[in-house]
């Protein structure tokens, strides 16, 4: 058990939020305090002409949004922390879902002036499905924010989770002075530093210190005392067990842009989170301290380094210790192999690793053998971790390359991007790849596909939107004659990347009609990888 100590230091969490709530900025500031970067580049970057470290794809830098999940590791106060920064935009929620499968807890970032937004609700539901602890960071207090009690009430009523503020904000906007720690009964006053690019200066005083009015102002002191009295009678008590069950969310306040409250949040968060959690497999729960190495693939990303045109499979280590060069068993491929070029990431900067432990995320070179959801384990073991569901696409388009001479690059690009899980591709039943139909969860994924085929593969495409909106996998293909199915005029037989047969429909009622016409047919809404 020599690696038990290393595993206990690990903390792996994902950051989720509605677009533009400050999630990527918070990620950057955590890296700043962890010493992983020296200067943080604001995503908006007015005073600093820099991009966020975790946004590495060209389209992300151009639009100022995250469209892929980034993986970063840093050390702080004896802990080894793996952060997964996810896309906030709902069109990329499938990537976020897969990323949450690799996390042990989630940090939910909420804009203090807007409160709970649509995408926060959707992502929160995904966290609830995973039963992982959720921590809340109410951000952007450097701008005028809504009433604090109102924000807490909205989290409880809209998301259905109890809240417990760990600290309390003093003012907001230009009047944001700092936070009050409910446990130590101390006030921390923040002072701006270098447009939020470096660590913030702060002063701390007990709430009953005679100099408190000079530090935060008499009126702010009076309002704070009134609010704390009200909070004492109304709020939930802190209960760590309820936090670990995902029933209570500890709430923190601050401003990621100016670094106010970021380090306070980080130090509390690390005390409250658990060591890596066990994972369910077809052999039951696998403990992280199990002697044998095991991991699963939750993300595949091509062309992170344009110079090398490579493809990286990201794995979450679930048990034991990984040692570079050691032979492992790829369960789905049913063969032994050595994981090539194991590395850890800071967005697109990487370092080769010799060893890693349960809780860590590593990227390995993928020659095209891995799929999302695959299990890798020590030789001699053959269990599989639970699969990651594939979301049903809601938008479809027919695509073809403009230049017929670039057919090879076109097929390579489309297949690689599909294997990453960014899009799903289908072809007509019983035909080759003449006609390619692309399915996506959100329409912005079409833009990313077009952009990436052009910039990474040099292929320009034409795209014709199709009227289909619903998709069902044929659950019993060996029991029915797919060629002879009696379909409606607005439905079509297709097969996916793994040659599994499906039917796509324009109207929901057509699904019922097809099932009524074909009594032996069974349809499924999800396919598991």
Could you outline the blueprint of secondary structure elements for this entry?
Elements: H1 4-8, E1 10-17, H2 23-33, H3 58-63, E2 70-76, E3 79-85, H4 93-101, E4 105-111, H5 118-130, E5 134-139, H6 148-159, E6 162-165, E7 167-170, E8 178-181, E9 186-191, E10 201-206, H7 212-216, H8 218-234, H9 240-244, E11 248-253, H10 262-272, E12 279-281, E13 284-286, E14 294-302, E15 311-319, E16 321-323, E17 327-330, E18 335-338, E19 343-346, E20 349-352, E21 355-357, E22 361-365, E23 375-378, E24 389-390, E25 395-401, H11 407-419, E26 424-428, E27 436-440, H12 444-457, E28 461-466, E29 470-474, E30 491-495, E31 501-505, H13 508-517, E32 523-524, E33 527-528
Parallel strand pairs: 1-3, 1-4, 4-5, 5-11, 6-11
Antiparallel strand pairs: 2-3, 7-8, 8-9, 9-10, 12-13, 14-15, 14-23, 15-22, 16-21, 17-18, 17-23, 19-20, 24-33, 25-27, 25-28, 26-27, 26-30, 29-31, 29-32, 30-31
Helix pairs in contact: 4-5, 11-12
Describe the structure.
The chain folds into 3 domains: 9-272, P-loop containing nucleotide triphosphate hydrolases (Rossmann fold, 3-Layer(aba) Sandwich); 279-378, Elongation Factor Tu (Ef-tu), domain 3 (Beta Barrel); 389-528, Alpha-Beta Plaits (2-Layer Sandwich), CATH 3.30.70. The model is unreliable at 38-51 and 59-69 (pLDDT under 50). The strands form 8 sheets. The chain has an 8-stranded antiparallel β-sheet with strand order 28-25-27-26-30-31-29-32. A 7-stranded mixed β-sheet has the order 2-3-1-4-5-11-6, with helices on both faces. Strands 18-17-23-14-15-22 form a 6-stranded antiparallel β-sheet. The protein is 25% helix and 31% strand. It is of the alpha+beta class and 529 residues long. It is globular. It starts with a helix and ends with a strand.
């Amino acid at each position: 058990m020599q690696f038990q100590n290393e595993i206990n230091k690990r903390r792996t969490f994902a950051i989720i939020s509605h677009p533009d709530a400050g999630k990527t900025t918070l990620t950057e500031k955590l890296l700043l305090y962890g010493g992983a970067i020296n200067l943080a580049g604001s995503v908006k970057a007015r005073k600093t002409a820099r991009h966020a470290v975790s946004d590495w794809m060209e389209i992300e830098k151009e639009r100022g949004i995250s469209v892929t999940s980034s993986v970063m590791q840093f050390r702080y106060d004896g802990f080894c922390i793996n952060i997964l920064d996810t896309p906030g935009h709902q069109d990329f929620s499938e990537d976020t879902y897969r990323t949450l499968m690799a996390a042990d807890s989630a940090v939910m970032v909420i804009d203090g002036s807007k409160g709970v937004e649509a995408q926060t609700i959707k992502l929160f539901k995904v966290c609830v499905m995973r039963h992982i602890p959720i921590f809340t960071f109410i951000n952007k207090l450097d701008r005028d924010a809504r009433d604090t009690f109102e924000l807490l009430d909205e989290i409880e009523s809209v998301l259905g989770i109890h809240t417990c503020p760990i600290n309390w904000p003093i003012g907001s906007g230009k009047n944001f002075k700092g936070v009050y720690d409910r446990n130590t009964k101390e006030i921390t006053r923040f002072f701006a530093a270098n447009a939020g690019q470096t660590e913030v200066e702060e002063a701390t005083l007990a709430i009953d210190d005679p100099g408190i009015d000079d530090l935060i102002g008499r009126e702010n002191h009076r309002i704070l005392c009134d609010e704390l009295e009200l909070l004492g009678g109304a709020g939930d008590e802190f209960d760590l067990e309820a936090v670990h069950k995902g029933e209570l969310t500890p709430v923190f306040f601050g401003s990621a842009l100016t670094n106010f409250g970021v380090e306070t949040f980080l130090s509390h968060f690390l005390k409250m989170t658990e060591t890596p959690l066990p994972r369910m497999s077809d052999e039951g729960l696998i403990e992280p301290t199990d002697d044998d190495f095991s991991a699963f693939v939750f993300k595949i990303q091509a062309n992170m380094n344009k110079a090398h045109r490579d493809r990286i499979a990201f794995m979450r280590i679930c048990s034991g210790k990984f040692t570079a060069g050691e032979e492992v068993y790829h369960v789905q491929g049913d063969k032994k192999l050595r994981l090539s070029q194991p590395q850890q990431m800071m967005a697109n900067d990487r370092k080769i690793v010799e060893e890693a432990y349960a809780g860590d995320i590593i990227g390995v070179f993928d020659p095209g053998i891995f799929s999302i959801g695959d299990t890798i384990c020590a030789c001699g073991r053959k269990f599989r971790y639970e699969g990651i569901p594939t979301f049903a696409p809601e938008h479809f388009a027919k695509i073809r390359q403009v230049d017929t001479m670039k057919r090879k690059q076109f097929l390579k690009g489309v297949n690689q991007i599909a294997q990453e899980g960014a899009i799903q591709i289908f072809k007509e039943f019983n035909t080759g790849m003449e006609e390619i139909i692309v399915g996506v969860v959100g329409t912005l994924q079409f833009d990313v596909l077009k952009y990436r085929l052009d910039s990474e593969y040099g292929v320009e495409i034409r795209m014709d939107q199709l009227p289909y909106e619903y998709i069902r996998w044929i659950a019993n293909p060996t029991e029915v004659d797919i060629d002879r199915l009696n379909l409606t005029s607005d439905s079509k037989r297709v097969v996916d990347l793994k040659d599994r047969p499906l039917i796509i429909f324009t109207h929901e009622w057509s699904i019922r009609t097809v099932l009524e016409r074909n009594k032996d047919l069974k349809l499924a809404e999800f396919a598991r990888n």
